[in-house]
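Is this the right way to post structure tokens for a design question? Let me know if I should format differently. Anyway, here goes:
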């Protein structure tokens, strides 16, 4: 196994278990404890982990953005449910925007056989996924490539998005809070998602349930009347009351409810 593959697997373990031990990882990968310590030191320098005595814990700093390859494997079943529900809202002839989240890639996989659709995206992976879809016109925004997320960001990206008027923007986020609104881990991604909202008739927030009551680094936008929130399970009563008062539609696998 290559060192990069081992480090990615360690990050996957940390996502699930929140902490790891050097001795256990050394046995798991049949390498020396010193090799594992070097792996953890590299992950710490990259900002993903914090070393502890005998191991490491996941860095929960609000500005840390895990690599896309890791996020794609996190809460995968929940995200798949969200993607299926989101895809059911998209109709032939629509024009939509998709961000560079792992959920957007799953949505692209759900809609790639549609016969008439326009998709504008900041995701390199979505571009590749839809490249062979004859019925879908795919537009890349251009911009600066953010390698960790395979996303296009920056001023040129936002300018491109601002030139379009689409039916629907489907965006994810790193966390939502009743007071702080919808949040992201970095300003570049936040700027892209805000511009998507401004360019769309309808904003659809696609989030798995782990994003509720989670604080991240920068505010993207507030919830607005008419927004749609799609999640894998019904939010608690406090959140449902919050959405109801603001005229926000909530769609889940078990419940579809209009306010």
């Amino acid at each position: 196994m290559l060192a990069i593959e081992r480090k990615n697997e360690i990050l996957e373990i940390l996502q699930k278990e929140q902490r790891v031990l050097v001795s256990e990882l050394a046995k798991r990968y049949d390498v020396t404890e010193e090799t594992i310590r070097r792996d953890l030191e590299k992950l710490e320098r990259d900002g993903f982990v914090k070393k502890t005595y005998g191991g490491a814990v996941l860095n929960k700093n609000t500005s840390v953005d895990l690599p896309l390859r890791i996020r794609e494997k996190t809460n995968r079943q929940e995200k798949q449910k969200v993607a299926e529900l989101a895809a059911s809202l998209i109709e032939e002839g629509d024009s939509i925007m998709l961000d560079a989240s792992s959920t957007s890639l799953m949505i692209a996989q759900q809609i790639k056989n549609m016969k008439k659709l326009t998709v504008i995206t900041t995701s390199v992976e979505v571009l590749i996924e839809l490249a062979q879809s004859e019925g879908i016109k795919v537009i890349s925004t251009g911009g600066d490539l953010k390698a960790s997320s395979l996303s296009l960001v920056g001023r040129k990206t936002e300018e491109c998005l601002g030139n379009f008027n689409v039916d629907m923007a489907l965006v994810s986020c790193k966390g939502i809070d009743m007071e702080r609104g919808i949040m992201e881990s970095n300003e570049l991604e936040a700027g892209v998602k805000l511009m998507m909202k401004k360019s769309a008739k309808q904003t659809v927030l696609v989030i798995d349930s782990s994003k509720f009551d989670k604080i991240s680094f920068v505010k993207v936008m507030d919830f607005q009347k008419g927004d749609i929130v799609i999640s894998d399970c019904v939010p608690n009563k406090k959140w449902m009351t919050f959405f109801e008062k603001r005229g926000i539609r909530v769609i889940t696998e078990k419940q579809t409810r209009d306010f």
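Format looks fine. Someone answered above. Worth noting: The chain has a mean pLDDT of 91. Residues 3-17 form the longest helix (15 residues).
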